[in-house]
Design goal:
The chain has about 140 residues and is of the alpha/beta class. The protein has a single domain, classed as Dehydroquinase, class II (Rossmann fold, 3-Layer(aba) Sandwich). About 35% of the residues lie in helices and about 20% in strands. Strands 2-1-3-4-5 form a five-stranded parallel sheet, with helices on both faces. The chain is globular. The structure holds 1,3,4-trihydroxy-5-OXO-cyclohexanecarboxylic acid (DQA). 1,3,4-trihydroxy-5-OXO-cyclohexanecarboxylic acid (DQA) binds next to loops.
Length: about 140
C-alpha cells in the first residue's frame, strides 16, 4: 500500500510553531515513528507552503497511490483550487487537522476541501495523521 502524506503552509514549523496548539514534536520525528509502526506501508511525505505546489503533488500521485492524508493548513479554509484538485484525482483524500478546528476561531470552522474528501479527522494532535492513515486499512 502506498500512502502520501501532504502538509501545507506553516506545517514545516511543527515543534517550533505555537506549541500549545500544535505540540512539541517536529513532523520528521513523528513520521519516523509512523513508518516504524507500519513498515509494510510505503509512506511518502511532502510539505509545501505554496498552493500550486500542493496541487502539483496531488496531480502527480493522485492516479497511482492508494490514499492521501492531507493537512492543507490554512488553505483548508480558502482554497477552491485545492478542492478542485482533490475532486480531479482518483486517489481518495482524508483531510486531517492537528487541532480541533471547531474549538477555535470561526473562520477555521469551514473547510473548502471536506466535501471533496473521503473523510475528515481533527483534534487528535499529530495522531490525526495516524488515524487518517489507518482509515485506509479498513476501507
Ligand atoms: C491546522 C488548522 C488550520 O486552521 C491552520 O491554519 C493550520 C493547521 C491544524 O492542523 O490544526 O495551519 O490545519
Amino acid at each position: 500500500m502506498k500512502i502520501q502524506i501532504i502538509n501545507g503552509p506553516n506545517l514545516n514549523l511543527l515543534g517550533v510553531r505555537e506549541k500549545s496548539i500544535y505540540g512539541n514534536s517536529s513532523f520528521d520525528t513523528y513520521l519516523e515513528e509512523l513508518r516504524k509502526r507500519y513498515p509494510e506501508i510505503q509512506i511518502e511525505y511532502y510539505q509545501s507552503n505554496v498552493e500550486g505546489e500542493l496541487i502539483n503533488k496531488l496531480h502527480e500521485i493522485g492516479f497511482s497511490f492508494d490514499g492521501v492524508v492531507m493537512n492543507a493548513g490554512a488553505y483548508t479554509h480558502t482554497s477552491v483550487a485545492i478542492a478542485d484538485a482533490i475532486a480531479a484525482i482518483n486517489t481518495p483524500v482524508i483531510e486531517v487537522h492537528i487541532s480541533n478546528v471547531y474549538k477555535r476561531e470561526e473562520f477555521r470552522h469551514h473547510s473548502m476541501l471536506a466535501a471533496s474528501c473521503r473523510g475528515v479527522i481533527a483534534g487528535f494532535g499529530l495522531d490525526s495523521y495516524r488515524l487518517g492513515l489507518e482509515s485506509f486499512l479498513i476501507n
